[in-house]
Structure formats: C-alpha cells, structure tokens
Amino acid sequence: MSSISNQQSAISNAPWPPRLVIAAPQGRSGKTIVSLGLCAAFAARGLAVQPFKKGPDYIDPSWLTAAARRPCRNLDLFLMSPDALVASFESASQGVDLAFIEGAMGLYDGIDLEGSGSTAELARLLECPIILVVNTARMTRSVAAMVAGYQRFEADVNIAGVILNSVSRPRHERMLIAAVERYCGLPVLGSFPRDPDLSIAERYLGLTPQVEEEQAAAIIERIRAAAASHLDLEGVLKVARAAPPKDTCRGEGSRPPTAPNRARIGVIRDRAFSFYYPENLEALEAAGAGLVFIDSMRDKRLPQVDGLYIGGGFPERFMAEIEANDGLRRDIGGAIEDGLPAYAECGGLMYLCRSIQWHGEKREMVGVFPYDVELLEKPVGHGYAEVEVVGDNPLFPVGSRLRGHEFHHSRLALPADAPFAYRVLRGTGIDGQGDGLLYRNAFASYIHLHAVGAPQWALAFVSLAAVHRERSVAAAGEGSGAKMA
C-alpha cells in the first residue's frame, strides 16, 4: 500500500480526478463510517481528497471535513440543476487526487418512484463507479442476492466493488466474500468487523455534529486505523481511477471571482450554530462581503458589521450559555431595530425569537420576533422544501420560487394572522402553509437554502448590507457635522 503516495503526480494530472461513490442498499448500513475511514486513510497517506456528500446534510459533512482535512461540499439534484451541480463538482475537484462522494439513504432512493435525485442518478451524471457498503448482520449467502439485485435494478449504474460491514467472525467473512465473488463477479474490497468502537453517537437528526464531539479526533483516528487494517485501499483507489476521463467544462454554478469588499457580514458560527455550506460563505465573499465570525456564547459585543448571517444548528443544547451572553443579544436586537440586515435559517430563526423552551426549561433569546419556540420530541419538518415568495421582502422577488430543505423539532406560537414571506408548496415551514418572517431588514425562515441552487440570495443580501453601510456612513457624517456646528 506504500505505492499510493508515489502515484500522486500521475493522478493529479487528470482534468477530472479519480472519483467514486460510496453507497449502500439502505440507510444505516455503515457508509458514513466507511467513508470517514477511507477519507482519513487516504489523507494520512498524503493524497488530496475532496469529500462530497449527496443530499442537503450538514452533519455527515462536518465529519468528512475533519477526516479529509478539506471542506466537504454537498451535491443535490433537488436543490441544484444538473449543470450547476457539475460545475460545482468541477470547481471543488480541481487539483485534487481523489474526489470522494458519500451517498444518502439507499442507492436508488429518490424523491419519487422514478428515483429522481437518487445517489444512483448522481453517480450516472458524474460517471462515477460505485462501491456498495452492505450491512451483513444476520446473513451469509443472501448477501449475493442483495448485491446482484442492486447490480441489475438499473443497468447503467456501475457497481464496481463491495465493502462488507458488521462482519462477526472470520468464517462469516469467508462465506460472504465467496458468495459475492461467485454470484456477482465483484471484488470485495474489505470488511469492517462488528465493533461498537467504530461508531459515532447519534441524535435526532443523525450523528452528533463534529464540532460538538470533544473526542472527534480520537474517533476519526480509530476509524482511520480500522480502514487501513481492514480495507483494500489499493483496490478502492483502483476503482476510483477506472472512472472515465472527462475534461473540465465550467458553466453555470462555477465559483465566480470575488468582488471588491462592499460590506462586512457577521457570521455566528460556533457549537450552537454550525450549519453552513462552504458554498454559501464563498458566495457571500464573491458578492463582495468580508466575513467576521462571531461566537454566540463567548463574544460579549457585536462587532462593527453591515449584515448578520445566522445559520442552523442546535441552540437549544446551549440555550443557557446563549441567554447568559445578554450583551451580545442586546447588541443584535438593537442593531436590527436600527435596520441592520440579518438573514437567519432554522436555529438562527429560533435565536432571533423571544425564547426557547426545551425539556421544561425556558431561556430568553434575542427577541426580534415576539414569538416563543418550543422543542418537541418528534420532527415537525423534515425533508425537501419548496416555497413561493408571496410577501414583499428585501431579498427575493415576489413570485419567485425557491428550493431548500428543512429539519427541525421546534414550533413557533404565532397568531393566526401572522404575515409570511413564503407560501409553502412542499414541506412544513412554520405552520404547514407559510414560512419566512420579516422585521425591518431581518429575514428568518426554517428553510435552508444552498447558494449553488439559489445564487441570487448572496448577491441580494450583500447588496442590502452595502446599502446599510452607506447609510450608516452618511448618518455618521451628518452627526459629526451637526456636532461641529
């Protein structure tokens, strides 16, 4: 396996790098653990690995980012057009040795009976070979029937290898390997043993976010060591290198050049608010924003910014610390009252409301929106969302449609006549029919948008912040003049 590092120069010359998809027959088969192990193992051997996650997930990408030592990006055919997705993939894959895509759910699961937006459709679009991760608990020869079915279900999908997960004993492993090789004609590229140490604690939305896990580095190292010991890294790389060569053809969705600095955008990013797509932050910078990162629990005052972006996360788990930082909360509330543009998604929406109640405890938040948030045990909204803009707002033209996603366990207590900026066409939003709250220049919603699929968002937000900056400078000048007079 030491020859991998010697192959770097040859690999990196290809316009599209070697690439592969890690998929599974169904969710919870172990593909995230396998993906983490492979990314970490290849990165440890000196390869530049660009990780991707199929779907709108934030949590798995946080772990893949740490494992590969490179920001993980999302690929999603519901949120993005095919051309925009390909351009985003190309842009992120330039100069890397391996493009690595972790699938979502089962290989053929999409948003409809045709499998639209599935991992299989993504693999076809990017012409990627697939390695299928199979949870083999309580089966032996039947593994071949399962794999063969996935091979034949869609003939143009290239399943090029299998990794076995949750293997109990050497005899079990030998039987599984023999069945796959005999009946499916596929190489078995290793097997992970049934081992509770090869796991990550889960919560209601999946894995615990990497930023919240104090032992994240140790967990990744254990999984890397297991991958190096139990998986055929050379065989996996051989599959990736067999992907057909393709020339880069930049188009819609490629990363635009950065504009001159037009505004300073504060981004609240910490353990409570960690759900940010790299592309969203890059889109703000490309539109002319300088980003200033803020910790909702540690930074006592709001720095001088022209706009504020508050992403999603789990503020309920840190609501005591957030409440205790009343100086920052007061600064944000006052700035928004004075017209500071703010854009908030999901957890950010909760932060801008009056309070959060969870497990019988209630804590004060910013209070821009005079509503109380209650956390429930079961999901309120979970999945893809589509909305139509129906209310005047400073970011999106009335009549336009936006695609995003939502996953939240909270609900807001709103009056029946509360005005919304969005009409929900798919999903739940705030009350099943509407979403999007607006107060002065603050816009908040449960819907998460991706800048590749909604490129107008970043330009509109930075433009709004730039106008606010100009007005603030002009007002300061007039104030100085008045004092001098």
Strands side by side in the biggest sheet: 3-2-4-1-5-6-7
Amino- and carboxy-terminal Cα gap: 78 Å
Number of strands: 25
Q: Would you tell me the overall average pLDDT?
A: 91
| Low-pLDDT regions | 1-14
**CATH domain class name of the largest domain:** Alpha Beta
Query: Count of helices?
Result: 14
CATH architecture of the largest domain: 3-Layer(aba) Sandwich
Instruction: Report the CATH superfamily of the largest domain.
Output: P-loop containing nucleotide triphosphate hydrolases
User: Biggest β-sheet, characterized?
Assistant: 7 strands, parallel
- DSSP strand content: 15-25%
Using only CA atoms, what is the Rg?
A: 24 Å
Q: Could you say how many structural domains there are in total? A: 2
* Class by alpha and beta content: alpha/beta
Helix content: 25-40%
What overall form do the CA principal axes indicate?
A: elongated
CATH-assigned fold name of the largest domain: Rossmann fold
Report on this structure.
- This protein is an alpha/beta fold and 485 residues long.
- The chain folds into two domains: 237 residues, P-loop containing nucleotide triphosphate hydrolases (Rossmann fold, 3-Layer(aba) Sandwich), CATH 3.40.50.300; 210 residues, 3-Layer(aba) Sandwich (Rossmann fold).
- It contains 14 helices and 25 strands.
- The chain has a seven-stranded parallel beta sheet with strand order 3-2-4-1-5-6-7, sandwiched between helices. It has a six-stranded mixed beta sheet with strand order 12-10-13-15-25-24.
- Strand 22 and strand 23 form a beta hairpin.
